[in-house]
Design a protein that fits this description.
Elements: H1 7-32, H2 39-56, E1 65-70, H3 72-78, H4 85-98, E2 103-106, H5 119-127, H6 134-147, H7 149-157, E3 162-169, E4 183-184, E5 197-198, E6 200-202, H8 206-212, E7 214-217, E8 221-222, E9 228-232, E10 234-237, E11 240-243, H9 245-254, E12 258-263, E13 273-280, E14 283-288, E15 294-296, E16 308-310, H10 311-315, E17 328-333, E18 341-344, E19 347-351, H11 352-365, H12 375-392, H13 399-424, H14 431-451, H15 454-463, H16 469-477, E20 487-498, H17 501-507, H18 510-530, E21 534-539, E22 542-547, H19 556-580, E23 588-603, E24 608-613, H20 615-630, E25 634-637, H21 638-642, E26 649-656, E27 664-669, H22 676-690, H23 694-707, H24 712-724, E28 737-738
Parallel strand pairs: 1-16, 1-17, 2-3, 2-17, 3-7, 5-10, 23-25, 26-28
Antiparallel strand pairs: 3-6, 4-11, 8-9, 9-15, 10-11, 12-13, 13-14, 18-19, 20-22, 20-23, 21-22, 23-24, 25-27, 26-27
Length: 742
């Protein structure tokens, strides 16, 4: 801004840019402060977080935690899941007595009683037919403890550091048993209680839960994109607070540590939850969580960041002695059929049990990252400061310096974010801030460009690929009269397709076919544009164009017909070139129709196009299909014919096309090389046909067929008459031909 330039002039020249820039800052700051949700920014924030996780994950194997895998090998060797509880009892005994694991966690639920031993049947016999058989009852009493697989499993769990799994749900129904809560809601006092809340659960058999005493739920937080980035370490159910499987395993490792909530500012009764304190006689550890009680999963790497042992090998004692000694053992599954797979930042197919293993490892190492309570305010304040600088200071620099300043600011934000993530353990969402820098830079760089000569560039960008340059020039003189918004108008639409294209494609190499189609499409497009047509789209070898929009054209029907005749003539010249190259010649069918239709920019958020839609458009497509039926290269609808009364047409038929009940008359422009008397004889033959005067019609058609043997329409009608002669037609026969396909 020049020192002598009046502020009013500056305001007039830059006021819109300032308003737009401030709107960007306010909108993004509101999102940063969680006043509302913008899914695009959430997606960007998730992508940035995932990138940081992948960048800084250690990619090492943590041998402290072993995953005992119900894998394909185990299922093949031990049978399909679920296995009987006797085998699970053997597994527990093996892990504690032979392998000496420190803690055993089950990432699964034992919800149903095991009846595989047949004990229930034997009991029924003892109460029924064999009730008086003392020997049978005595034998059953001796066998019952061995056949009660659930009790055997419960006995194997009792008195050992075992943590069972269960799940919460939002269904009112509950089944099985869950452990006692970690704490009561009263532990939060007046602090906000915003934990994930559930209404039902799926727990374990009461005998198993009583024996193990410990259990943890394995519900993750599924983000909007289906990825698991957080797991709620505590959740609310009724008036109690319960712990996740990973938290309960860690508590068991510490010797049943007590859990108390930690708040951001204990002196402030309204401050949110910030962590969980695990206290033992040896000290206290604090695990950072967000206000919902969820912790970010500290992924170590892709699948396989912990040693896996097939349960078949564990039960078969095929692993090295002491391989599991002192380790945390988690029983889970990677078998695809058991459906315990998650989408995570480090893998689209990731075992759910390994998610828990990563959390436990993070608790052991104190490496669980967290979003500090001031993160939202920090991002919003930085966004406002950077935004104001870019709105009011950047524009007065040269484009090169402004670009360099924006790049340096962007790089500084990224570097600070990476430092906070790697060194401080802070996960600060900076998507809104980075997006503000990019958006304001683009606004500053492009504003002047779009203000100057914006009309011509606007219309060239919007309509240049559809309409001829001279029409774009015409539109740019009065930009207020044009838009891509949908509107209703009477237009004329044309469809053109290559006949027998599949057979042609089979005779040419791909490169030759591409060259042929490029030449053909280019030639036909030039004809359309030369007659003020709007190119709609290419549909394979087909072309769609329309007339009358975006520039109004009272003669849209005439120009469309002229384009069709021009395409016919251009094809003759093109075929000469193709023949000289030894390529097959092309034949086309063209359908034209006029009528009301919707025109405008239509599509989805992924892709849009300036196009036309409506019944008249569908009819034009069907007319193009009829060119094959009648072996006529151009067929127009009745409405088109009415708008060019000075052009000579011959009526071909009255037809009922697919998708339309009302019949329409279809016409062909006067065929080349046919005389006026032939046209008169044809219309006379058509009149005799519709009057059911078969002999008179056949006589005229025979004469025409002899004079013009290449015209298949005469043969078509002669065959029709032969077929109709022996048919008792109704009195109200309408002479309409129905076509059920394109």
């Amino acid at each position: 801004m020049s020192a002598r330039e009046p502020f009013a002039s500056v305001l007039k020249r830059s006021g819109v840019r300032w308003v737009l820039g401030l709107a960007i800052v306010v909108a993004l700051a509101g999102h940063a402060l969680a006043r509302y949700d913008i899914r695009f920014i959430d997606s960007l924030a998730a992508m940035l977080y995932d990138a940081k996780v992948r960048l800084f994950m250690p990619r090492t194997t943590d041998a402290r935690i072993a995953i005992l895998d119900i894998d394909e090998k185990s299922l093949a060797e031990l049978g399909r899941w679920p296995w009987n509880r006797a085998r699970m009892a053997t597994l527990a005994d093996t892990l504690f007595s032979r392998e000496h694991v420190a803690v055993l966690g089950f990432d699964m639920v034992f919800a149903e009683a095991d009846a595989s031993s047949g004990l229930a049947v034997l009991d029924e016999l003892a109460r029924g037919p064999l009730a008086d058989n003392a020997a049978y009852r005595q034998a059953l009493e001796r066998l019952a403890p061995r056949l009660d697989y659930d009790q055997r499993f419960a006995d194997a769990l009792a008195g050992r550091p075992v943590v069972l799994g269960y799940y919460f749900s939002n269904r009112d129904a509950s089944s099985g048993a869950i452990p006692s809560p970690l704490m009561n809601e009263r532990a939060f006092g007046t602090h906000p209680f915003t934990l994930f809340d559930w209404t039902g659960y799926g727990g374990n058999l009461s005998a198993l839960q009583s024996a193990a005493r410990r259990a943890g739920y394995f519900n993750p937080v599924i983000d909007f994109d289906g990825s698991v980035r957080r797991v709620p370490l505590i959740s609310a159910f009724r008036d109690g607070v319960y712990g996740a499987l990973s938290l309960e395993v860690f508590r068991a490792l510490l010797g049943d540590a007590s859990v108390t909530p930690v708040f951001d500012d204990p002196s402030d009764p309204t401050s949110p939850l910030a962590g969980l304190a695990l206290t033992t006689p040896r000290g206290t550890r604090v695990i950072p969580v967000d206000e919902n009680g969820a912790a970010l999963v500290p992924y170590r790497g892709t699948t396989g960041s912990f040693p896996y042992y097939s349960i078949a090998d564990v039960l078969g004692q095929r692993i090295p002695a002491g391989a599991l000694a002192g380790k945390i053992a988690l029983v889970g599954t990677t078998a695809p059929g058991l459906m315990d797979q998650r989408t995570t930042p480090v893998g689209e197919v990731y075992p759910g049990v390994e998610v828990n293993a990563n959390l436990i490892a993070g608790m052991l190492d104190g490496t669980i990252r967290f979003e500090p309570p001031f993160a939202a305010a920090l991002q919003a304040s930085m966004l406002v400061l950077a935004g104001l600088a870019m709105i009011f200071l950047w524009p007065w620099r040269s484009p090169a310096r402004a670009t360099l300043s924006s790049a340096m600011l962007f790089a500084a934000i990224v570097a600070a974010d990476l430092f906070a993530f790697a060194r401080l353990g802070w996960s600060i969402p900076v998507a809104s801030l980075l997006l503000a820098v990019l958006a304001l830079h683009v606004l500053n760089m492009s504003y002047g460009y779009f203000v100057e000569a914006r009309a011509k560039r606007y219309f060239a960008a919007l309509f240049g690929q559809y309409v001829p340059p001279e029409l774009v020039e015409e539109m740019s003189r009065h930009p207020e009269d044009y838009s891509m918004a949908g509107r209703r108008a009477e237009l004329t639409v044309l469809f053109c397709d290559v006949l027998g294209f599949t057979a042609i494609a089979e005779t040419l190499e791909p490169e030759a076919l591409a060259r042929l189609m490029n030449e053909y499409l280019g030639t036909m497009t030039e004809v359309i544009r030369a007659h003020r047509g709007t190119l709609d789209k290419y549909i394979g070898d087909a072309i769609m164009g329309f007339w009358g929009a975006p520039v109004d054209d009272p003669d849209h029907a005439r120009h469309a017909l002229a384009a069709a005749l021009g395409m016919r003539a251009a094809l003759v010249e093109l075929n000469r070139t193709l023949t000289a190259r030894g390529w097959p010649t092309l034949w086309i069918g063209i359908g034209i129709n006029t009528g009301p239709m919707t025109v405008g920019d239509m599509g989805s958020s992924v892709r849009k196009a300036y196009t036309v839609m409506g019944d008249a458009v569908n009819v034009a497509a069907r007319l193009e299909g009829l060119t094959r039926r009648f072996d006529i290269d151009i067929i127009v609808g009745e409405a088109t014919r009415e708008r060019v009364p000075d052009v000579v047409f011959r009526e071909i038929d009255r037809v009922r096309v697919k998708g339309r009940v009302a019949p329409i008359a279809v016409f062909e422009p006067q065929p080349p090389h046919e005389h006026a008397d032939a046209l008169a004889r044809w219309h006379a033959a058509l009149a005799h046909y519709r009057a059911r005067e078969w002999d008179e019609a056949q006589t005229l058609l025979a004469t025409l067929a002899a004079q013009y043997p290449e015209r298949q329409v005469y043969a078509i009608y002669r065959k029709r008459i032969d077929a109709l002669r022996g048919v008792a037609l109704p009195e109200d026969w309408d002479c309409v031909s129905a076509f059920d396909t394109k």
